[in-house]
Amino acid sequence: MSKNSKDNKNDVKPAAVDNDLDLFDDFDDDPLSATSVSRKSLVIFFVIDTSGSMKGTKIGELNTVMEELIPEIRRVGEADTEVKVAVLTFSTGVKWMYSEPVAIEDFEWSRLSASGVTSMGEAFKELSLRMSRNSFLNSPSLSFAPVIFLMTDGYPSDDYKEGLKVLSANSWYKFGLKAALGIGNEANDEMLAEFTGTPDTVVHAYSGNQLAQMIKIVAVTASQIGSKSMTLADQNDAELSDEDVYASKQKMLGQQIQELVNKNDSDDISFDSGW
Fold first, then answer.
1. Could you tell me if residue 274 is inside a domain?
2. For 237-253, what is the mean pLDDT?
3. Nearest to 29 by CA among 132, 176, 140
């Protein structure tokens, strides 16, 4: 599991407010264009490695955990928030589980199988393509920044840096909440931290029980924070910029994930022997 990073020098304090600075403008892809609306939309993206190294126990346990997770996510979010789920898998090529994000109330997990190589760079490019008002983020209401959760058990077989460069130019990715899970001994946490932007939102699982714990901790925590309406004030109670709001959410995600991970470690949970 990743080590805790030091807090930023200039801490900020979040506070809930009536007007939403977290909402995206309907007509373009600028996450910082914000107006108030009666209903918001939050899309949770799961980006999942289904290459051959995931075959067998890993993919079986991941399927079981995700089936259990969906009902928990249904309870996430405020009453005026529409939560949707999109699942992108990558192996030899990329594939969406459904042709568009599905409302969490209607979402049904379709069990995944594993084969092929690890086209992570291609997955990053596909994710960037779909994170647009012209595609998967075309909600008639305004939107929170998306939650993006990457899961993999190995190193990419293609140029992931090129794909990440393309993805990093996408404003929705830039201001989205990003987390990653390394599965097994071969997953590279440093590479995953390149994706999330911080090691605090990278966790690791070496066994089936750990996999279940980490997926639920990250997915539920990220969804709860992603659906919050909040603004920021500095120590002088001066309102800070929208960029600071998104940075604070990512920092909050890292802090809460690490607190929960450390709590589970201290609780001496009985893990199985691994894969």
1. no
2. 74
3. 132
